[in-house]
Amino acid sequence: MEGLFAAGDCSTMSAGISGAAVMGKVAGEEAARHALAARRPRDLSEQEIATLRGAVLRPLQNPGGCTFSQFEDEVRSVVTDYVGFYRDEPHMIEGLRRLKALRAREAEMSAADHHGLMRVHEARSIRAVAETMAASAIERRETRGGGAHTRADYPARDDAAGLKMIIVELQGEDLRVSSVPTGITPEDIRSTAALGEASAHAHSD
Q: Which CATH topology does 42-204 take?
């Protein structure tokens, strides 16, 4: 996706701090290069700027609301209880419902200072990612990824139906889930596995 840069585990490269550091440097350099070449966005009106500023700073004017840590704890509890390591459709559907309900409570969060303000917006992003993950996990009706996605109700990998990328888009207040094929076929996977086995056998000899 043009303009989207990833590092660490989400870039499907090596795990651990060394992989995160190296890919972070590469992604950062490429993001900077992309930004320098990007078109200048249109100028915003004073009214648009005031509206956006008000939305960003609103938690500072919301004393007595829930803190970012309380909100994050609720999100994590929902994910752990309903979209955890072993997943099934009924639990994930309930988890998705609870995450949507938490979205309606985002405006209740308050911040005592600008650090807290940053954490409020981070907590909103954590909830949005959790909702996106739950929606996509429901759509993937198979087990895949060596523990990354384990379905108790679909315990086997399904290359016939599962070789796809799941896309989640926000349309208004709802998430729209769709998929596109990866271009990888089951035969490609069998061929790659056979090469790996042959290489391992050769090294063992």
A: Methane Monooxygenase Hydroxylase; Chain G, domain 1 (1.20.58)
